Amino acid sequence: MNPDEARTEIARLSAELEHHNRLYYEEAAPEISDADYDKLFRDLELLEAAWPDFASPNSPTKRVGGKPIDGFEQQAHVVRMLSIDDVFSESEVHDFFNRMVKNLGESKIPMIIEPKIDGVAASLIYRDGELEAAITRGDGTTGDVITENVRTIRSLPLRLGPQAPAVLEVRGEIYMPNDAFAQMNVERDEEGLQVFANPRNATAGTLKLLDSREVAKRPLAFIAHGFGQVEGLEIESFSSYRELLKELKLPTNDPVWHADGVEDVIKAIRKLDVERHNLGYGTDGAVVKVDSIAAQARLGATARAPRWAMAYKYPPEQKETVLHDITIQVGRTGTLTPVAELEPVLVSGTTVRRATLHNQDEIDRKDVRIHDTVVIEKAGEIIPAVVKVVLAKRPTHAVPFNLYDYVDGKCPRCESPIVQPEGFVAWKCMNFSCPAQASNRLKQFVSRKALDIDGVGGKVAEKLVERGLIEDILDIFELHVDQLADFNIGTAAEPRMLGEKNGTKIVETAKRARNAPLAKWLYGLGIPQVGESAALEASRLVKDIFEIPESEIIAMIREKGEKETWLKDNPLRSSKASDLSVDEFAERKATSEAYKPRVKELTEQLAAYSVSPELGGVASASLLGYFQSDSGQAMLSRMKEMGICPTSTNYLPEPAKATESGASGVAGKTFVITGTLSAPRNEIKDRIQNAGGKVSGSISSKTDYLLSGEGGGSKRDKAETLGVTIISEADLDELL
Ligand code: IVH
Question: Would you say residue 651 lies in a domain?
């Protein structure tokens, strides 16, 4: 391929990928399969690696994020980013309109009414049609440069079409769709991470991340609602600007209304209040703007906000009702949530019978008691919540509520003891066999990264659990084709059978999955804190699953972690220690003196195993806790009965010894893979990992080998500069 051909092909692939991105993320109407998309993506990656000069920072391949940065740079806004004046009543809308009439000297004023999106404002600068920078509002004059993070927003074009003017600064709102937000919180909760309070907080938090690869995993979206600096184009009205945005494939607000009299403005505001609940993202008002840009210029702005726009803020509807009882719901991740059982009331058009009380802290803070009269609120599409108690209406028989006492310390679904994990406000059921958690666990168990059992995706998993075919994840290995063929995954009214073909697929892949490597099993079990890397590392330290509860190495990692944490939390010198009494201090000092040499000893003993930090004290404690628990032990004995013995395929507790004796040239070595190989990258990665090697994404001086296939330009160059050995697939086979 000559340079011209390469350049053309890179441009063609980029445009095609962007086209499919848009179909997938914006129109939810993909035209090609994920596999075909991946193929295009990989082709482009390869070409860009071979021709780095033609690789644009706005290539679709950059949407997965790049290297973390140390901090955000600041950039001044060429045109200041203003705020909008809020109004809260229809009479204020009349006042606003009358002011426009007076200042413009006209009785009819074309206006646009559109949703006020509850997100984070950002300004995107496109120069010659290429995204050059993205900046937050900051103080209105200067903001943070968040270009790398914004590049990961899939629904946003990084390149505009030929209609783009020389400079176009698009302003708009970055937000997170409600469903994607909820899904992300479920996943975070499963991983033991703090969940976000609402989509806005999640968006703001995400944009502050310094690692754009993390941002790429979060479901951000963008809607344009204004402009800043523009060169090479005269914009006459906001409506014509909207047309331009649409031509350039930039997402715009929908629905919008046009009005030129105040009555129509108010009608639009009322219509939007109904429609906004179905938009799928948070809105908290209606923005009303004068359409003509010339009129906007005549009206001007105050120091804070333009005079040509206003935001009508919808009040979250609140109602009073009686709290009859508090019940406990066990979520699919084991979290116990107190739920208010209410006298039914109509709020924002729907009858509300139940509202979340979040957790015990919230109940205490608001002093909610059973039989109280409470105020409930349904803000936007968010689940109804109890806002406060009407103390004046508290009856004498109102009863305080304590979650732990109410459930007698036991999960209401499975009766196993509940715990409050450190740093969490919620109580949790930690029993992995709890029926409330079964469908979630099953989904992880069968997922591609775990046992990869075909045909048991979301809906089927839920139904299998709901109808009692699977109570325990091991039940999946005892399903029969005839049982599944007639299995109704629809409803009683609209039945839909799984069918023989799908049933056979499930049974066959499940059969194969019995022999999946230990690491896949460990990840699939969904043990808190045990992700893919921790599972892989644990599997390196034991021969098979039955060794885990007795593993001395893992127990040492746990002990070291626990002691180190204690030492960190109980310092001898610091303001924290100065509050202690003499006795308390002496006791702390004695413990500290006992722990320190023990930690040193453990560190020395563990050195031979070179355990990666991916399997730390917390993950080890969780792993052992699970396998030593009653339900973990019960699972192991059932596995024995069923003849299932997940075995380590990367067993290598002492990598140094193995290298010395030359057992395998791969063990303990770090590989980076580049170029086109004879098998999918994941397969090769598995082979290296199964032999005790590590696979990393980027080359550094710590890399032992660069495995290079066809292409692989930039990584090869870097390897040569760093003196990293470059090997072929045949070399790898030899090492293995
Ligand atoms: S127009 C000069 N339209 O709300 C500001 N803003 O509270 C004109 N916002 O900073 C902005 N949705 O970030 C406009 N449809 C919309 C909006 C919107 C959300 C944000 C915007 C603004 C903030 C003011």
Answer: no
